Amino acid sequence: MNRPLIGMDRTCNTRPGTQYDRREIVRAGLAAGAAFPSIGALLSFVGCAGKDTGTSVSGPQDETSASPLAGPKHNVSLVAEVGEVEVAPGHVYRTWLYNGQFPGPEIRVREGELLSVVLENRLPEGTTVHWHGVPVANPMDGVPFVTQDPVPPGNSFVYEFPATPAGTYFYHSHMGLQLDRGVLGPLVIEETTPHVSYDREYTVLLDDLLEGDPTTASDGVHGDMHGRRGGMGDPSRPEYSALLINGRTRADAPTFEVRRSERVRLRLINAASATAFRVTLTGHELTVTHTDGRPVVPVTVDAVTLGMGERYDVIVEADNPGSWVLTAASLDGTPEPAEAALRYAGTSPSPARGLGHPPTQWQGRTLRLSDLISIESGEAVAAGPDRYFNLVLSGGMMTSAWTINGQVYPDADPLVVSEGERVRVTMQNMSVIDHPMHLHGHFFRVGNALKDTVVVPTHMGRVVFDFTADNPGDWFFHCHNLYHMEMGMARVFRYV
Ligand code: C2O
Ligand code: CU
Predict the structure, then answer these.
(1) Beta 73-88 vs 449-451: how paired, if at all?
(2) pTM (2 decimals)?
(3) What would the pLDDT profile of 78-121 be if each residue is shown by its tens digit?
(4) Nearest atom of ligand 1 to the alpha carbon of 309
């Protein structure tokens, strides 16, 4: 079993505070309407920011060559194929993968490079790759029947786009329910000028493990359709057999090595198809520095929740030597949490298992959407919006359909915008389950944060976001619960 190394050591070349213009960050914060809780706390994060050493872990086929279109060209080869995965010792199952790895190889590029990916489809059915969160040109977006035809078995397709802006992303098949088989992987675009300093980083990709073929509830294969899990009202979540961090169950939890007094960046990615996670780390706080790749004013909490498709970058101050447990627990309670060990050099090699925080007894401070303050000025609302959409999210009751304003995609009207318009989208959740709504091709402003995926909470939860229609094309907009998407909770924003 090929177990890719995810994560890399970083070297800090400069002293904290030397690489960032403090006036800029203060201005950015004030522009975002922020009252700084602590300038000192913020500035303590500013500095060297792990300028990287050029180490790439994105796969054996990578090479870099000059390109006139953007920065240097970064070539990656992705082979979608059937293979075997070992998620714990002796726990092997057969599924669909990229390059025989699970998760797929980490694609890591520098901001401004031209990323060129050759996808070769060796699966038994058509496939596409979507670059979740990256505002690529529309033909590169990888949505079957919206931006391209599926790549047939035995065929190839070249995806090429400038790697910008920097951030933590992931890539995945956007064909049907393929995501739930494991055709997914992390995508990191490294900053040229980060706003946080760190000495080391790890990618922490969260997933749910489905053994067997994914099917929609309407196929009638999901077993108990009658309100299991105490009336969650969501018959659309499959029976997952485990939760995973970087493709491993807690029975073989990955270990993240750190050294005392290091500042460790964790790139948290929820690549699961139907599991929202709460992430906690014993013995440490988590300082959130980015959401969906976009930098925010650092905010320190005890827990971060991630809907499907969301990413959070957090900094851990390694100031408490020992062996600690990073826990990723399902907000639904099942299956049992995934774990990783955070181990200080020189401490016991056996991870202290089972010390994670059960979500039901959680007492700490959980990150809220309102805690997030973008340090970027983009998407500020100068004038009022030019275009409004009110979208009601429903479903999961009498039928297995999930709807937006009563319509079931693809039997649904496009949401029409014109280039240059400022668009305001109001979503109201009339169902009894959260919906992580994801917009392709754009970042939107929700509250004071820039994001591409936002959870609309259950029971009348209401979320408003604004975006600028600055990337022409047909852009998919959908719930990132794969089963909700597949059962209709999707629309296309169409530029006319
Ligand atoms: Cu992760 Cu339509 O996307
Ligand atoms: Cu949903």
Answers:
(1) unpaired
(2) 0.84
(3) 999 999 999 999 999 999 999 999 999 999 999 999 999 999 99
(4) 1
